[in-house]
Amino acid sequence: MTAELLVLLIVVVTALAFDFTNGFHDTANAMATSIATGALRPRTAVLLSGSLNLIGAFLSVEVAATVAEGIVRLNEVGGPDLLEIVFAGLVGGILWNLVTWLLGLPSSSSHALFGGLIGATIAALGWNGVIWSAGKQGVISKIVLPAVLAPVVAALVAAIATWLVYRITRSSDEKVVNRGFRWGQIGSASLVSLAHGTNDAQKTMGIIFLALIAYGSRSPSDSLPLWVIVSCAVAIAAGTSLGGWRIIRTLGKGLVDITPPQGLAAESTSAAIILTSAHFGLPLSTTQTVTGSILGTGLGRGAEVRWQVLGRMVVAWVLTLPLAGVVGAICWGLAHGIGGLAGVLVVFAVLIALATIMWLRSRRAPVHASNVNAEWGELPSPGAAGPASATAPPSEAAAHGDPVSRDGESTRGSAPSQPPVRRP
């Protein structure tokens, strides 16, 4: 086995690791509102989401074909140099995903990946290696503008949908309405999970295919190998099934208090926008779309929005590209400076060490299926220091969700129909 083949294998493993972090980092996109309203039990929700992510990954490869096209000029390099750039970019994306997961911040895995690739490309090729703006191509058109427009459009559509829902059902029995919308949430959340698999798994497929081209075993005109599609689908599904509880809690409980009609409106809006972007091959951020939808439902209902929580999310969004880029550039410099297989192994070891440290840090204030639905403010802030015993014991209602009870109202794990106002 040659050194270059070993580098390729490490790049593929790292890409699948990124896909795995993408899964548990973005589980919240599909299931946060369904868990918050009690439409689905927490563990049932993440297992359902994982299964649908697996199916969604097989439905389309449009995004895979355009994952880095029009953003970086990687066609100017090849062989080991291209493998180093791809590897460093993946490490940048993984580490940013883990940092934001530790802090409970729903940031974009897609933008973390692009940021890592951009940073590694700048370090390797200079500023001219990045396509900043060129008509419909470039960082501005393909990343920045969608990042700004997606949450705004999602918020507007979700706000209108929520207002209409409450307008139409204002004379109906509230328990019956909530019961029906909880059942509807199961369908809409499933659609978001399917859309997430359709959109996000393909990015990793494209990265692995790029590595195969760099190694010389594939040409750009070839189709995606089946093993690439299957492995990426399994990786993102496995990560999703693990459940990113810290981010699920932030989206489900931290931004606004969510009722079943809001949950259905948010999920339906997100699914429509994400599936449309996947159809046209646009690498849209599902996280920002879902966050915008949840915010819109709060505005449409006139509920209190925790602007401080939203502010932290926006800061994370703004920092994603540059900080993931810095990490990608540093990793490329380290790998390239040492050179060859040894350089890649050193960076890979650093990645494992930092990931382990962040996982151990998360155990100080754990968030899991049993306490994810505790009221906002009852648990320590995600990422805060402190023993696990400091976590407030969850109530039975927070630990389990039941979509339908005999009187039509959920009795477990659901938010009240008129939730109390709580400040962050």
From TrEMBL:
Bilayer-spanning residue ranges: 52-72, 84-105, 111-131, 143-166, 224-245, 314-335, 341-360
GO cellular component labels: membrane
Key word Iron present: no
Keywords: Membrane, Phosphate transport, Transmembrane, Transmembrane helix, Transport
Pfam families noted in UniProt: PHO4
Superkingdom: Bacteria
Any one GO molecular-function label of the UniProt entry: phosphate transmembrane transporter activity
One record GO biological process: phosphate ion transmembrane transport
Membrane-related topology note: Multi-pass membrane protein
Region (Disordered): 378-424
Protein's UniProt name: Phosphate transporter
Organism: Nocardia transvalensis
